[in-house]
Model the fold of this input.
Amino acid sequence: HELLDLVADSCNPIILVAFLIVLHAKMGHGKLARVFLFRFLCALFLTYLLSHVHQWFQLWPEHGDFVSGHMAFLLTVATSFFLLDRRSLAFSIPFVIGYGVLIVVLGYHNLRDLLFAAGLAVPVTLACHHFGFRKCFGESGDGL
Done:
């Protein structure tokens, strides 16, 4: 299990670095890059906060499951990556599915935890990026 743990622990840093490299390659250090990065960081913060509220405050003690914060992080990055470059889906979808299978096999989470993470991370990320998106990238969103 040590090797699988190492693989699981490296998934979020790998996709984050890939995202930051593509962000820099597509946008450089300009205003659009800073705005996109700010929205990404807001999405990451809100997703992290919302995915851990249940655990921190034990809102539903009889509910033993909890949103996977690691999967929520990964999905926030993957969703932002998609908004930055739609071609990233070819990499992100198998990566997210593989990570999900891995953390279920390792016993860290169950499928419900992962679905809750998806139900939280994707809409929060889309909402954070939506505000002002048309202003920065044009009506179609294809200005990148």
Notes: Residues 139-144 have pLDDT under 50 and may be disordered.
